[in-house]
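Changelog-adjacent note: as of this version, every example in the card shows the full chain rather than a window. The one below runs 234 residues end to end.
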Amino acid sequence: MESDINILVVEDDADINGLLCRILSKQGYKVRGAYSGTEAKMCLEMQDYQLILLDLMLPGVSGEELIAHIRSVKTMPIIVISAKDFQETKIDVLKLGADDFVAKPFDVEEVTARVLAQLRRFMVFSKAKEEDSNILRHKDLMLNKETMEVTVKGIHISLTAREFSILELLLSYPNKVFTKANLFEHVWKDNYLGDDNTVNVHMSNLRSKISAADKDTEYVRTVWGIGFKLSDKT
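Full-length structure tokens:
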């Protein structure tokens, strides 16, 4: 069964490249072969990969140069497969940013096991990072953009769609002061015609609900004559 995991095999020896592509494809991965460092860079610009198998002695861009380039922009695991089986080589590539090293000639089962181990670690990390990116926090308030849940001190508060959008906007830009026009145009998706009451009512309701869960802490501050922002009072 084919997975959604993409693997890039960077190896200039056509036989070894083909072998690695075949064994990984049999495991259900989507595999692309590249035969030079230059081709690998092109592949990385066109596609996201969850793992790279990388030879060091490549035409064009070397394996070491490629590791440095990848690590400047990507976090996916890099497994080096090389005949340069010297201790200093292993240490150097690991310092550069590689995650594992397999010496040639390699055992096919060992390669597939190391691939699985690196992918398992990376996918757990990626999932945690993705989940964390959906969470916005301020003091004891937490907003989950994916589940649309808001809690204050662990207490769930029920917000309307407008209130949720206002709070999400404030949390996304914690240092920004939002005018009523800013809030109206972002949340109501319409031109602001000076109707302060609409924004004031929703903001008042939002603050009341937050206060009901934590009456001793100010979360949203009124900036007189301008608008609203998150409160930085402790």
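Structural remarks: The mean pLDDT is 91.
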